[in-house]
Amino acid sequence: MSETERIDSEKITHYQFDRAADAMGLDGETRELLKTPFREIQVKIAVKMDDGGLKVFVGYRVQHNNARGPMKGGIRYHPEIDLHEVRSLAALMTWKTAVVNIPFGGAKGGVACDPKRLSPAELERVTRTFVSMLDTVIGPYQDIPAPDVNTNPQVMAWIMDEYSRRHGYTPGVVTGKPIEVGGSKGREEATGRGCVFVLQEAARDYPLDLGKARVVIQGIGNVGSHAARFISELGGRVVAISDSRGGIHHPEGLPVDRVLAYKAEKRSLAGFPGSRPITNEALLELDCDILIPSALGGVIHRFNADRIRAKLVAEAANSPTTTTADEILEKKGITVIPDILANAGGVTVSYFEWTQNLQQLYWEEEQVNRELKKIMTRSYQQVASIAREKKVTLRVAAYMTAIDKVARATRLRGI
Ligand code: NAD
Fold first, then answer.
1. Domain hosting residue 146, numbered range
2. Is residue 96 domain-shared with residue 148, that is, in the same domain?
3. Which of 260, 296, 304 to mutate to test the pocket of ligand 1 (most atoms within 8 A of CB)?
């Protein structure tokens, strides 16, 4: 994570909020009420390491807003995570759940650690200790964590188990779990799939033929890999894709299934037959129809925004575009589908998972995907229609609809 991102993460969410609040003529009191987090927690996670030594990690949970329902948001494990970043990501969740109109508020959490340097047993102890520290402030009607960067279904299973040890069987305390312990079919693919559903709608508006589009994807984790797969299933050409160490490029399109199998086997993209290597910086600037940043925040910034050549940017990652970059892209006429819409498929299927857990009644994947498509399509159309009517960007329109919903719920409940 760059210095640029750390400085910008909170600024980005406040700036985006204020732009929409200005367009809505929102009063100062409501702004303060909606911007200020509900609760912020920082905890010490002391863990015995495999070598017998002791290590202390710092964990965060920021609960931003619960006007529309229990708070919801992922847990990120990253060595450079800090309270500022978690705070901004928590606010994004409030606006995201409101854009797609699911009955949740927003939260986010993280532990400053590098999971690549931890053994599975150490990772489990870090996770269980973190949950024990958050025990009284999370829960299925209070705050429901989920996966984010460097956390996966196994980590969610440990969270579910640790919480259930103290409170009895409670699968609804966390989403993104493995199917075997109450996860939902289709959850793992949901963020990538939802992003592609939104792109299908946006491409129709643009207009752009998704079946012929040249697509560049930064990141080949949960979100990027599935987005790549669904784009190529629609006939689109994924011309470049990357991981944290760099990417691979082929102007005619990469065979996505084989790339994913190669990455799984070698744990690297380097040397994929027939491709040429490309840095993460150069990848963002490739000539293409659609750019999907699916890794970390702040990657499109003031120094490279002017060189972005995509027609459409779908923000599958959270906050990939800094405020200055956003203005530059707008001036260049590049359409940006904002994160709070483009990557809301994950939290939407998390909502389905939570309802299935509460009812103990499980859906077939076909139902999950059908309902996801309905929500993503409807949300895009609502946002696009506000953007057209108010002559604002998709981002401002998305924030306007989200802020309006949260403000109304707050007023109705009373302060
Ligand atoms: P992940 O850990 O599964 O994958 C992250 C990917 O980014 C990996 O391919 C990694 O190699 C790559 N990466 C890491 N550092 C990088 C760097 N400096 N430059 C380029 N690539 C780098 O994470 P994920 O769950 O796929 O999340 C990716 C993004 O999507 C994050 O911004 C996350 O907040 C957002 N997001 C995830 C979900 C979800 O359901 N997982 C939902 C909404 C938003």
1. 39-169
2. yes
3. 296
